[in-house]
Amino acid sequence: MLRVENVKVPFDGTYVLNECDFEVGEGEIVVLLGSSGCGKSTLLRTVAGLENPESGKIWWGTQEMTEVPPHKRGFGLMFQNHALFPHRNVGENIDFGLQILRMTGIERQERVDELLSMVDLDGFQNRKIGSLSGGEAQRVALARSLAPKPRLLMLDEPMASLDRALRDRLLADISELLRELKQAAIYVTHDHDEAFFIADRIAVMHNGKIEQIGTPSEVWSNPSSEESARSMGHENFIELDDSGRCEIGQLGSSSGIVLIREDGLSIVPEETGIKGEVISAVFRSGITLVKIRVGKIELSTSIQGSMKVSEIVNLKISDSAVVALS
Fold first, then answer.
1. Residues of CATH 2.40.50.140 domain(s) within the chain?
2. 45-49-54-60 Cα dihedral, nearest 10 degrees
């Protein structure tokens, strides 16, 4: 099991990582989620041994790994840009990670064949890297990172350069494979949909700190801060006055920012609820994403069926969907 304790990494007079703590259990997939520049890739590189922390410790079980060189940690790393060798073919790229192990040539070839089968690239051993599509190159990179059977696999924005359809297919395959192998992993992304799909737990990062960690359901339902909520795609933020009121009504007991989760907004029959005007309606995959203006407040939600811009509707807000933010 990986354990990261109070890790701090300085950069240019400030801390790019500031007292980060988290764990990865056996066979668990933990996602580091946050916007660009929040420190998630630096945290991944620090766990890998490519960045040196000023303070804090990194453990694998009872073994402290903080000062252990990267190649002796037994961790695998898959980069966003594949980092494949263009002068080697597919089989040779995968075999590269096996050359430091005590394996015969036959054993290495069998392992390469096994990995190509795992990532659905049977028969690709002699293909040139330059002939591969983006998705195929990512599968080769995944096979290479899994080749030496790492005790922890780290994936740094592996889907960032792929189109949505290809990304969704590859993400499903990676999730299935990691769980089949019971592979402990850290997965870095800025995309909350990716995080929700693949994670056992999500660590939400902002300004070099882990703001919140929990299951996808936990962090989505109860974000701890506005930054955490925005990282997960929430949009409905409302500022309350000293009495906890806003144009919509009483939403709290004191001043501050609250989130109204999209699942807590519903359209109700006339003469009930809160009156608002539809200012945007976009059809997507069987639902309609709507934005409704109530006074100066704009609220987003999704509905079944269609709705027209300028239509007047009545909203109901579920009390359980109102979350006070720090």
1. 235-324
2. 110
How is the chain split among helix, strand and coil, in percent rounded to 5? 30, 35, 35
Looking at residue 62, its pLDDT comes to 96
CATH 3.40.50.300 fits 2-231, yes or no: yes
In 115-234, beta strands by DSSP E: 152-156, 185-189, 201-206, 209-214
Tokens 């073994």 found at: 63
Contact 315, 294 (CB under 8 A): yes
- 55 backbone φψ class: left, alpha, beta (φ>0; ψ -120 to 50): beta
Per-residue pLDDT, averaged over 219-241, amounts to 94
Phi-psi region of 143 (alpha: psi -120 to 50; beta: other; left: phi over 0): alpha
Strand order in the sheet with 265-268: 265-268, 312-317, 274-284, 287-294, 297-304
Is the CATH number of domain 235-324 3.30.1050.10?
no
pLDDT per residue as tens digits for the range 233-284: 999 999 999 998 888 888 887 889 999 999 999 988 877 889 999 999 999 8
Instruction: Tell me the per-residue pLDDT of 41-64, one tens digit each, with 9 for 90 and over.
Output: 999 999 999 999 999 999 999 999
Ranges for all domains in the chain classified under CATH 3.40.50.300: 2-231
**pLDDT at residue 231, as a whole number:** 94
Q: What is the pTM of this model?
A: 0.92
User: What is the Cα–Cα distance from 297 to 124, expressed in whole angstroms?
Assistant: 55
- Residue 247 DSSP one-character state: T
